User: Fold this.
Amino acid sequence: MKVTLLPSAVSAGAGARGFFSSSYLIDDAVAIDAGGLGFLGELDVQVRVEHIFITHSHMDHVASLPIFLETVFQTRDRCVTLHCSQATLESLRLDVFNDRVWPDFIGMSEKGLPFVKVQTIEADRPVDVAGLRFRPIAVDHVIPTLGFLIESPGATVAIPSDTGPTEAFWRAASAAPNLKAIFLEASFPNAMEGLAVISKHLTPAMFAVEIHKLGRAVECIAVHIKPRFYDVVVKELELLNLPNVRIGVPGENYIF
Assistant:
């Protein structure tokens, strides 16, 4: 399985460190979130994406979704399938595709224009696409949010998405066969724990507590580090001396 941490246009253009947005590309065919997907200059990468799974509707996870759908429109015989929870779909309809912020691609598609096909998903109900199984699991964020276990015949990768301290996801990940890696957020430095708790994100200290819940040694890639606090967060992660932890790099491919 190949997992690509997609850069945002800002971070790619300026060479800045940290994560301005969130998007993963799995085996070049499936995206998890679309924070930066539609801002990629490589159009050949965009047109190969057949499915998008949206974890939740916060802007850093959906910012480029409308632009992506417009870019790939009519570039293939069938349109992209969007997989998201009912709560996320309602937010996209009301807050994005509402003919004010962006044309109503969802409603237009329901009337025959093939911008996007929508499939609602639920926690603990796996979805099989592109030779992979995506298992959605609820995590603890400020709005309804799904993390994913992604299973191929030889490897499982865990992407919890944005979360504060959570339990169900780690139980499922611990029981997953062939678990190779976890992409876990570390948004704020330890000194900002109060903000992390309110916004339901993680600091390096909280990151350490979460990965210990797994109960097994697995490679862990730290992601979602806020660019302004990048140096402090990375230093605090390194001082923990956690085994198998490395810092995620936007634009990098990870092979499992």
The chain has one domain: 2-255. The domain at 2-255 is CATH 3.60.15.10 (Metallo-beta-lactamase; Chain A). The longest helix spans residues 86-96. The two ends are 5 Å apart (CA to CA).
